[in-house]
Amino acid sequence: MLQYQIDRIEHQVADDRSQTGIFLIGPLERGQATTLGNSLRRVLMGGLEGSAVTAVRISGVNHEYATVPGVREDVLDILLNCKELTVNSRSQELEIGRLVATGPAEVTARDLQFSSQVQIVDADRPIATVNAGHNLELELHVERGIGYRPVDRRNEETSAIDLLQIDAVFMPVKKVNFTIDETAVSEGGSTRERLRMEILTDGSITPDDAVSEAANQLIELFQPLATVTMVEEIPPEPEPAAEAQIPLEELNLSVRAYNCLKRAQVNSVSDLMGFSYEDLLEIKNFGSKSADEVIEALERIGISIPQSRTSA
Q1: Which residue of 3, 22, 30, 311 has the lowest C-beta tally within 10 Å?
Q2: Strand intervals (E) in the chain
Q3: Can you tell me the distance from the alpha carbon of 210 to that of 44, in angstroms, rounded to the nearest whole number?
Q4: Residue 32 domain-assigned?
């Protein structure tokens, strides 16, 4: 079994609390670096669960094209600022945060009040500027999800008129790049590869945890294939034709032919269908005349039997 190392050679935290991690994975056999890189990148970019602001309620505002008295930013700007907030919710339920600011004030994410289940990653992210003598009241809804969830306009009629929905971006990984380098030649003469992967997260998850979660998802995806057992489905036997159910008595055979067949345990047309002309001749005291009689009787009901065993 191929053994390889995973080394994190760099880890940086930016001013906005986003994190960058660079990993080296190797040595790998030729082609395996591409397989690992593509698979991990797909899951990292679209399969990890994250948190996002999904709706905002602003006191005194009931549509997104309004303005708030005494606030420099209009409602659309405030919504965009809230959409860019990086939050990390540990709850699978809806979490609601609130903010009450009195001007003059530069309102940032630090002023939001959430339960202990929600962590604000970048507390210095600006939200709005409130002038002296004015107030700003906000309510933010935070949910967990996967990928990108656009606003469902069909459900807006059933929601509160002053609850402004936001397109939610739940993806905690913002960028993944990987390159492949050739390493030393192995004992067998084949060239080994090394995967270099750079991962940028929004700070709600570390690059190390992101790689671990992505790898575990891939393991769960492939695990059923590792224990698969293919059971060949046996097709059901076709139901016999109605003619095959006809009893031997209804063929109106001669007494000699009838008695010989009965002694050979032939009781119906279905039993006769397993015989060839040669088989009939081998029945005790059953000559060619009786065999011809049976064939003619079967042909009258649309059934024929082969002449020999090889042509069956």
Answers
A1: 3
A2: 5-13, 19-28, 49-58, 87-89, 95-102, 105-108, 118-120, 126-130, 135-146, 148-149, 163-165, 168-169, 173-185, 191-201
A3: 7
A4: yes
The number of folded domains in the chain is 3
Residue type, 293: E
Does the pLDDT of residue 156 top 70, yes or no? no
Total Cβ atoms within 10 A of residue 171? 20
**Residue 142 token pair:** 């935070």
Whether residue 110 is contained in a domain is answered as yes
Q: Is 184 exposed, middle or buried (0-12, 13-18, 19+ CB in 10 A)?
A: exposed
> Tokens in use for 54?
């999904």
Provide φ and ψ at 26, rounded to 5°: 170, 175
pTM of the model: 0.69
What pLDDT score was predicted for residue 157?
Answer: 47
CATH code at 256? 1.10.150.20
Residues 119 and 262 in one domain: no
Smallest Cα–Cα separation from 122: which of 79, 87, 91?
87
